[in-house]
Amino acid sequence: SYVLTQPPSVSVAPGKTATITCGGNNIGIKSVHWYQQKPGQAPLLIMYSDNDRPSGIPERFSGSNSGNTATLIISGVEAGDEADYFCQVWDSSYDYVFGDGTRVSVL
Amino acid sequence: EVQLVESGGGQVKPGGSLRLSCTASGFTFSSFHMNWVRQAPGKGLEWVSSISGGGEYIYYGDSVKGRFTVSRDNAKNSLYLQMDGLKDDDSAMYYCARVTYSGSYLCDNWGQGTLVTVSS
To answer: Do the chains contact at A90 and B105, CB–CB below 8 Å?
Structure first.
């Protein structure tokens, strides 16, 4: 099966940049999607196809994907960005795979 | 506005059964694949099952294969998950999610979830 590896936590000061990685074997050839989940809420799609934002998602959120690492970047972090972030890929061999999630804490 | 509302969760003993429902609105339900995704308390997301728009293609995660059955009624804009032979490990929040495709499949809209607790 395919494994996605995320750091358990990332801490960032308000106004700074948070970088969340998602590692996987040759993930650069796959399409990576990202979800944000705030406490007590359902997941919310915030990035799809590596670096496309759904309508309503601020431009502060951006993404990239190359080699063995996909990255979600949150620029100008705000208190409201505190949440768990999950990466996800799909393949016909293993269907949907999610990373274990990264908790972003705003200092 | 896309809305997905799950129901049917509750507490059940190991070996028991439960049927979850998800009612959709705000989009043409029959045109979309749908997923069930679960999340155990304090854990990550785990894909459970997928069903195509017409119900012809059905897939399950290894942990539920042979025990869970997904179905849909497009006339009622509803998605179902029949869960039999429940185990402690099946305790989780169960979300239904609409599936779309952009480079690969993804879940673009999620319901608020329904909680399943398996305990003796």
So the answer is: yes
Beta bridge partners, B6, equal: B22
What is the rounded CA–CA span in Å between residue B57 and residue B34?
11
Tell me A53's DSSP state. Answer: P
Determine the distance in angstroms separating the CA of B46 from the nearest CA of chain A, rounded to an integer.
7
Q: State pLDDT tens for residues A57-104.
A: 999 999 999 999 999 999 999 999 999 999 999 988 878 999 999 999
Cβ(A63)–Cβ(A70) below 8 Å: yes
| Helix, strand, coil share of chain A (percent; to 5) | 5, 50, 45
What are B24-82's pLDDT values in tens digits? 999 999 999 999 999 999 999 999 999 999 999 999 999 999 999 999 999 999 999 99
**Which of residues 24 through 43 in chain A touch B, CB cutoff 8 A?**
30-31, 33, 35, 41-43
Quick check: A95 contacting B, CB < 8 Å? yes
Closest CA to B48 of B24, B26, B23, B79: B79
End-to-end CA distance of chain B: 40
From chain A, the residues in CB contact with B47 under 8 A are 95-98
Q: Do B108 and A45 touch (CB under 8 A)?
A: yes
What is the C-alpha separation between B106 and A66, in angstroms, rounded?
19
In this prediction, residue A93 carries a pLDDT of 82
